[in-house]
Amino acid sequence: MREIGLLLMTPRYKHTQIGYVWIISLVAMLIYTSYFIILIGLNPFLIILIILFVTFAICLALFPTLSIEINENNLEMRFGPGIIKKNFLLRDIESCRMVKNHWYYGWGIHLTPHGWLYNISGFLAVEIQMKSGKKYRIGTDEPKKFIKAIQQSLG
User: Fold this and answer.
1) Rounded-to-integer distance, Cα 41 and Cα 120, Å
2) In the CATH hierarchy, which fold is given to the domain comprising 11-155?
3) pTM for this predicted structure
4) What pLDDT digit, counting tens, does each position of 8-64 carry?
């Protein structure tokens, strides 16, 4: 019986995309703000720099990667260690397709004219159409494999 439970929990699809440009940018910002914190010493401007430093450090900790996993019942995506994540029940997904985001949609999590976007790098994404009519875009560097896995999971 335990073997059946393990079989059901085995992911049908699992992929992690690393946001190299995002990571390099944030590390550069951390170095830059650290340099200015050391350079200016005690100064009222120091508080602003420390807030920036902490903000960059938190972003670096929470958003270095975007992982996507499809198992028996769910499509789950999570940023970094998984504090920020989103689950979709497969039975609620109507369809999916490959799309290319405009450069100005950016990276991270935000609302676009096409629904919520979850992206860590690049412009390619898979747009998921829910039976409720809502749309979501999940950025990926392997959209064809991701779409194939969703379609197979939907039957």
Assistant:
1) 35
2) PH-domain like (2.30.29)
3) 0.81
4) 556 789 999 999 988 998 888 888 888 887 887 777 778 888 888 899 899 889 999
